[in-house]
Specification:
209 residues, alpha/beta
Length: 209
């Protein structure tokens, strides 16, 4: 019983890192998720002057990767954990001070940004924690410029095991909500396995008027 409580607490740290342990978990995820981060950035097809939003930015590694790899872009990271926000700010301090990056605390269901603010929106390994999938997707649609696109990266299994729960979320919640919002070119694609986990992304675009 004590072990189960400990495991539940550790799992909660991945969802919402807190304190010293949360800081450690954030840096651990940087090391664990480099494959998914690099692949997701490729799928964004970033262009000069793009404004890019990372939902659930964690310790800010994806932000740092984009700032190093692309000139004349602006990146914003959002996370609900004050602990992990501090890590992201440390990692990207120079670019935040220089106006190329912002890191903000907030909730995915009520994004603190104006309409049509971003050319690209992406999120890596947060889909499992979306409490209201249609609401989050509606917020992504709201903050995207017309013609802007999104990439949501997640894992749907490991080794020979497929996780039916995440497949159900995509089939029964995400895809219908995307259709209802009028998002276009919505499709799933397989990425490189990472530590034997199956990497998948669902991508799509906001239609132009």
């Amino acid at each position: 019983m004590r072990f189960m409580r400990l495991q539940t607490w550790i799992d909660s740290q991945y969802e919402n890192p807190r304190g010293i342990v949360g800081t450690y978990i954030g840096e651990k995820m940087v090391r664990q998720h480099r494959v998914e981060v690099d692949w997701t950035i490729e799928q964004l097809h970033i262009q000069p002057d793009h404004r890019i939003l990372d939902l659930g930015c964690g310790a800010g590694d994806a932000l740092a990767q984009m700032l190093r790899g692309f000139e004349h872009v602006h990146v914003t990271g959002l996370d609900r954990s004050p602990t992990i926000i501090r890590s992201a700010l440390r990692r990207n301090r120079t670019d935040v001070q220089g106006g190329r990056a912002d890191v903000v605390e907030g909730d995915l269901g009520t994004l603190p940004f104006p309409d049509a603010q971003f050319d690209r929106v992406f999120s890596i390994h947060t889909l499992y924690f979306w409490e209201d999938v249609p609401a989050v997707l509606a917020e992504i649609d709201r903050v995207l410029v017309p013609g802007g696109s999104f990439v949501i990266t997640y894992c749907d299994g490991k080794g020979d095991v497929t996780w039916d729960g995440i497949a159900s979320i995509m089939r029964e919640q995400f895809i219908p909500a995307a259709s209802e919002l009028g998002l276009i070119d919505v499709k799933q694609q397989r990425g490189p396995d990472s530590r034997d986990y199956h990497t998948v992304a669902v991508t799509g675009r906001k239609a132009r008027p």
